[in-house]
Amino acid sequence: MRVLFAGTPEVALPVLRWLMDSPSHEVVGVLTRADARQGRGRTLHPSPVAALARQAGLEVRTPATLREEETQEWVRGLHADVAVVVAYGRLVPAALLEVPQHGWLNLHFSLLPAWRGAAPVQRAIIAGDTLTGASVFRLEEGLDTGPVYAHVTASIEDEDTAGDLLARLAEKGVALVDEVLEQLASGTAAPVAQREDGITLAPVLTPADGEIRWSETAAAIDRRIRGVTPAPGAHTTYEGARLRLGPVTQVPEVTDLPAGMLQVSKHEVLVGTGGCAVRLGQVAPAGKKWMAADAWARGAHPAAGAVLGSGGVGQLGVEGGAA
């Protein structure tokens, strides 16, 4: 099949690599997001999909919108049999939905109709789901509402971050896309309309979603941190400055530590929550690299009663700074 591929981040690469290597398919064009500024120097970097596609000599387009007439003419001129979409990040207008013979197939990382939207894996982890999966469905004008061709399930493990789970689902998605393309080629594809019950939404995450509220339970804090790792990342404050947080470990035996209060020993840093305490793993003070929490504490020297969050200033019960 002649395939138009649309995708942007690292998670889209397994399917693109498979399509490029497949003797049954030809990638005739690639749509991705424009180069973005990154790092302290704010230099332009291509998306992971753009970098791989250009290295392979594929034709790459990075339009700000697919509503541009020039872009639509380019898509029509490819004469693609099908378009395969993996985390592209742009809406496909109605004028293009029927342009490939078999339409636009989207590999979505949830068991639709659960978690329609931009952050299905992240929202599933934050919500405490134990089962998720991936679905291949046909794009239509509604948000992730099209009929589903195939799906695969996957467990959410206790220590999974969003990055871990996305990587696993991306690999599982290769076989799923392969299955659906074979069905389309043989004329045996039979998409099924999504259920009208069980619909949940997964809007894009913002930095505010990564702010930790220490009054929540340890389990909720653990899930939130894992759900926003690696992006947009979890954070709190210490002495008025942002402190980024990696995954934590719940400590069920410590239940008397007030929410946000630090308990520092030689080899660990505990923080109180609305339930049991949590043990900090990796942390990153503002402008600094990731380090073990105990190494951070040896440099920061938190006073007895120091707290995280709520402005992150001073000691518990002491307003306005350290005593």
From TrEMBL:
Documented EC number(s): 2.1.2.9
Protein name per Swiss-Prot or TrEMBL: Methionyl-tRNA formyltransferase
Every Formyl transferase C-terminal domain range: 205-300
Pfam families named in the record: Formyl_trans_C (PF02911), Formyl_trans_N (PF00551)
SUPFAM superfamilies: FMT C-terminal domain-like, Formyltransferase
Organism in which the protein naturally occurs: Actinomyces urogenitalis DSM 15434
Binding site for (6S)-5,6,7,8-tetrahydrofolate: S110, L111, L112, P113
Record's catalysed reaction(s): L-methionyl-tRNA(fMet) + (6R)-10-formyltetrahydrofolate = N-formyl-L-methionyl-tRNA(fMet) + (6S)-5,6,7,8-tetrahydrofolate + H(+)
GO-annotated molecular function: methionyl-tRNA formyltransferase activity
UniProt enzyme class: transferase
Domain Formyl transferase N-terminal intervals: 2-179
InterPro entries: Fmt, Formyl_trans_C, Formyl_transf_N, Formyl_transf_N_sf, Formyl_transferase-like_C_sf, Met-tRNA-FMT_C, Met-tRNA-FMT_N
Leader sequence segment: none
Gene that encodes it: fmt
A Gene Ontology cellular-component term: cytosol
Record flagged with keyword Protein biosynthesis: yes
